[in-house]
Amino acid sequence: MNASDVDGGVVGTLPGGTVDAVVIGGGAAGLNGALMLARSRRSVVVIDSGAPRNAPAEGVHGLLGLDGVPPAELLARGRAEVRRYGGRVVTGEVTTAAPAERSAEGDLRFTVTLAGGGTLRARRLLVATGLRDVLPDVPGLARHWGHGVVHCPYCHGWEVRDEPLGVLATGPASLHHALLFRQLTDDLVYFTHTTELDEETRARFAARGIRVVDTPVAAVESGAKGITGLRLSDGQTVPRRVLAVASGMWARTEGLDGLRLPREDLPGGAGRRFVSGTAGVTGVPGVWVAGNAADPTAQVGASAAAGALAGAHINADLATADTEAALADAVR
User: Fold this and answer.
1) Above 90 in pLDDT, residue 73?
2) Pick from 206, 223, 245: which residue ends a domain?
3) Residue 196 has pLDDT above 60, yes or no
4) What is the CA radius of gyration of the chain?
5) Phi (first) and psi of residue 329, to 5 degrees
6) Which in 74, 111, 207, 242 has the greatest CB count within 10 A?
7) Do 109 and 61 share a domain, yes or no?
8) Are residues 95 and 140 in the same domain?
9) Cα separation of 189 and 212, whole Å?
């Protein structure tokens, strides 16, 4: 199968035979995992759909030494670093990932099929597919995602400091959201929308100077420079410049059902993640998970670190398998 190179549109051919690892997802977690494997002289292929979660954002923040770097630039650097050590990064979408079989030597063999029919054989898999943000169905909201509509006080908070800010409640996570964003502005309005707010929480908000609006939100209104306010169901408009929303966070699972990776729902109906243990190990032998697919709240730095740790553990697992195979050959 021909696959398009992510950076330059150069057409290349997927490797034949069996590679040491296939990384599904080319964000911070997947690329850092691939980097660790490639630097360990492992054959590694990263399959990336080219749709990172943070694409709408102007910059990546809270990442030491790279604060403010545009997301696309960070990924381009990462792809170049993986390739520098012999790793491959190709554009593609996984349609199926078959459960592992055993080779003649007893090692694992996964088959990954891409849209268009190409296949890869791999000894190990790293799932770093990230997640999909699901926003409230409020007219006018989605168009401002990543700019006037934000979700993370650590990713975007400094950039919206001192603005007239609203928190649109979506569930229990919004209560914590309000307290964190109150640190960044004195002008904060909490819109309960379709949620309930108990008296104790109202008292806490009042103590912090957080105004509460109980009338449901009908739409987000905009002007030439972005959000101008939230129109309520009674026709009134509350002026706001920025809206904080706790999105639903759902791990990207397309094409991975065949692996039967354990998943669990997040508290309060906030989404779903893959279940993983130390260094991203899962209940499926030979498969690791890293990044937002396993830890929905992880920022770019934490996701990259998780990918690096998973990559190191995959290499160690392969080293053990290589030693066992060599020992078996020696005693034949």
Assistant:
1) yes
2) 245
3) yes
4) 23
5) -65, -40
6) 242
7) yes
8) no
9) 6
End residue of a domain, out of 221, 245, 269? 245
CA pair distance 235, 314, nearest whole angstrom: 57
CATH number, domain containing residue 184: 3.50.50.60
25-49 pLDDT, tens digit each: 999 999 999 999 999 999 999 999 9
Whether residue 295 sits in one domain with residue 218: no
pLDDT at 6: 45
Q: How far is Cα 24 from Cα 283, in angstroms, rounded to an integer?
A: 17
State the number of CA atoms in the 13 A half-sphere of 332 facing the CB.
Answer: 7
| DSSP strand pairing (217-223 vs 88-91) | unpaired
pTM for the model stands at 0.92
Structural contact between residues 121 and 1, judged by C-beta atoms closer than 8 angstroms: no
pLDDT digits (tens, 9 = 90+) for 276-305: 999 999 999 999 999 999 999 999 999 999
For helices 300-330 and 28-39, give the axis angle rounded to 10 degrees. 30
Q: Which domain holds residue 180?
A: 136-245
Number of domains in the chain: 2
| Structure-token match 């170049």, residue found | 80
3-state helix, strand, coil in the chain (%, to 5): 30, 30, 40
172 and 191 within one domain: yes
User: What are phi and psi for residue 279, nearest 5 degrees?
Assistant: 60, 20
Distance (Å) of CA 107 to CA 122, 123, 280, 312, 324: 10, 7, 20, 18, 9
